Amino acid sequence: MSCRLGVLIATVVFLMAPTVSAQWVQAGGQAVIRHGDVDKAREEARNAALRDAALQFEAQVDSSDTMENGVLTKSSLTVASQASARQVKVLSEHREGDVLRLVLLADMQAGNSRCTSSEAAGYRKRVAVAGFALLHPAQAGMGALDNIGRALPAALYQSLLQTNSVEPFSIGRRDLFQDVGDAPTRIEPDNVVDKTLRLAREMNVQFVVAGVIRDIGLIDPNAWGTSIVDRMVRGVGLSNTRRHFVVDIFVYDGFSGSIIDERQIAVTGKWNIDKTTDVGFGSAAFWRTDYGDAVRGAIGQMRDVVTQAIACQPFMTRISRVDNKTVYLAAGAGSGIRPGDTLKLYRTYHFQDSPDSMPELQDTHTRMRVQQVNPEFSRGVIARDASQLNLQQDDVAVIW
Question: In the chain, is it the N or the C terminus that has fewer CB atoms within a 10 Å radius of its CB?
Answer without folding.
Answer: N
